[in-house]
């Protein structure tokens, strides 16, 4: 039997052990808090001169697609990473030079021989005005779904704002070729930052609007960026079939919101084909269009609904899927039907009421029919907002299976 002194010594030893454990735990937690606080402080510092970065300098359009016009290293960064805000050159659907912005994030530490695989991210709809660009937000990393997991896998991540957001340029909302070019040229821009260690190996990942953009990037890469090796393509609830998307929602508030962004863009981009606002929107819809397009989606859902609700049910003068030039424009900007060699991961929330499951099932069948290796993940309980996050475990397993 232990003596009183021995028992006291054991209790003292246990106290020392728990004290050390608690100190270590608090140090770890404190470290994460300190990193988080440093990132918030850094984000605040970066906001002070934010507008100046996005003013295009003289000669901004003069240079090859993918070259960097300007860059600045960010202070508020994810843990164990470096990041830059970039302004770079790209092209629109007609091959004309335009400017885009975005961010590049890379893990700290030595890169593998040959550089890091680049994960080019396409963000979901945030709006259509320059102020709605994710790179201009207080936390420019917030919408990169799965960023921490992707950095831990060793990817350099590029995240385009798309053309017409962040900095001046033609409106490109759901303009497939322009969006795809911006996704690819973001990779090229990262390659101009030596510390990003960006290689020619590329994985594309996008959600909703970003799903459409990365599918177009995959389709266009062999011709537009043949030096890039697209090794995998992943999408969550992609806005692939625009005819179905607008037809499904043209008489609800989602259709009014998406339509306000899309018809304004198409009227600008396809004006030479007779795509005028007056030819598709009712007078009431035309009246609210400027207000809808100046508001960013995530921060103004209530206000967008307030403005858009009065025209629900009488937003358009005809079904855009059935009248020209709108039917042709929607078809041209719908993704799918063009084969590419990379495997394709598709996730779809079964509770999604915006991009409905049957639309994504049709995309999967279409892609499989033309020989693309598709892995489809319908996920119960996931809606349009949560699908990309809930798909992350399956996405990581798919990346592992394909050694990406």
TrEMBL record:
In this entry, which stretches build a coiled coil? Answer: none
GO terms, molecular function? hydrolase activity
Q: Which InterPro entries match?
A: AB_hydrolase_fold, Lipase_secreted
Where do the TM regions start and end?
none
The answer to whether keyword Hydrolase applies is yes
Q: Which UniProt keywords apply?
A: Hydrolase
- PANTHER family per the record? LIPASE 5, PTHR34853
Its protein name is: Alpha/beta fold hydrolase
Which organism was this protein described from? Microbacterium flavum
